[in-house]
Write a structure and sequence with these properties.
alpha+beta, two-stranded antiparallel sheet, two-stranded parallel ribbon
Length: about 80
């Protein structure tokens, strides 16, 4: 079995996990591979949105989401 561990759930970690999940779809479904993302907070912050907060066009609460909501269902 192949195990892939991604440290960090920021933009790069999330993108990498989702791309690998698509590429390894058959192996993940067969149980011969796993993809795991480890992140200390479990929350994704859309940092480019901070610019809009400064201009009064966005609220900080709208820039946070659970990391799980952005990950492919095959990623743990």
């Amino acid at each position: 079995m192949n195990r892939i561990l991604i440290l960090g759930g920021g933009v790069g970690g999330t993108l990498t996990a989702n791309l690998l999940a698509r590429r390894l779809r058959r192996r993940l479904q067969a149980g011969t591979a796993t993809i795991t993302v480890v992140d200390t907070s479990g929350e994704h912050v859309y940092q480019p949105g901070f610019m809009y907060i400064a201009m009064g066009g966005e609220r900080a609460a709208n820039l946070h989401r659970p990391e799980r909501s952005l990950l492919d269902e095959r990623v743990t």
